Amino acid sequence: MAALVGRRRRSSERTGRNVRRQRNGVIVVAGLIERDGHFLVGQRKAGRRHGMKWEFPGGKVEPGESPQAALERELAEELAIAAKVGPEIVRYEHSYPGRRPILLIFYKVQSFSGEPVNRVFEEIRWQRREKLLELDFLDGDYDFIRRLLRGEFRGQM
Predict the structure, then answer these.
(1) Residue range 114-131, pLDDT digits in tens
(2) Diameter of the chain measured on Cα atoms
(3) Contact 54, 40 (CB under 8 A)
(4) Helices then strands (H, E): number in the chain?
(5) pLDDT tens, 20-75?
(6) For 3-20, b where at least 16 C-beta lie within 10 A, e where not — what string?
(7) Domains in the chain and their CATH numbers?
(8) Residue 14 to residues 10, 20, 75: CA-CA distances in angstroms?
(9) How far is CA 23 from CA 3, 19, 50, 61, in A?
(10) Cα(133)–Cα(11) distance, integer angstroms
């Protein structure tokens, strides 16, 4: 599949089942879980990297794992739900100071079974779309949230 760095990908490569690890960093997946106009978000625990920052549930893609499988695994671990991961919404690179760049991939969660249970966060909550920016999100999520609020992903959500 695509090398993901240094060249533009065809649309078929953007949604490929197997994505190789990014040369200079890791791949992180996030799930957009929406219910009645609210998105499920979690606040990282205090005392951990980026403590008390809000994020969309998800995590790192492990070696040999597809991004979709990683997101399903992370949602089961973090929230005790069985998710059906839908289409990719967007991907982009983000660099935190002093760290290698990460590739963020956001997916729509088509459906899930079970009621979300907080297993790893300080807090989880359902937040209205227009109120997302009232929370202190991870820096890497802000580009996505701004674009979401501008309506850039209407056809994909």
Answers:
(1) 999 999 999 999 999 999
(2) 41
(3) no
(4) 3, 8
(5) 544 546 999 999 999 999 999 999 999 888 889 999 999 999 999 999 999 999 99
(6) ebeeeeeeeeeeebeebe
(7) 26-156 (3.90.79.10)
(8) 7, 12, 22
(9) 8, 11, 23, 14
(10) 30
Cβ–Cβ < 8 Å for 70, 49: no
CB-based contact 14:91 (threshold 8 Å): yes
| Residue 56: closest CA among 83, 96, 25 | 83
Residue, of 85 and 17, whose pLDDT is higher:
85
Report the predicted TM-score, pTM, of the whole model to 2 decimal places: 0.84
Q: Cβ distance 83 to 56 under 8 Å? A: no
Of the candidates 59, 44, 36, which has an alpha carbon nearest to the alpha carbon of residue 106? 59
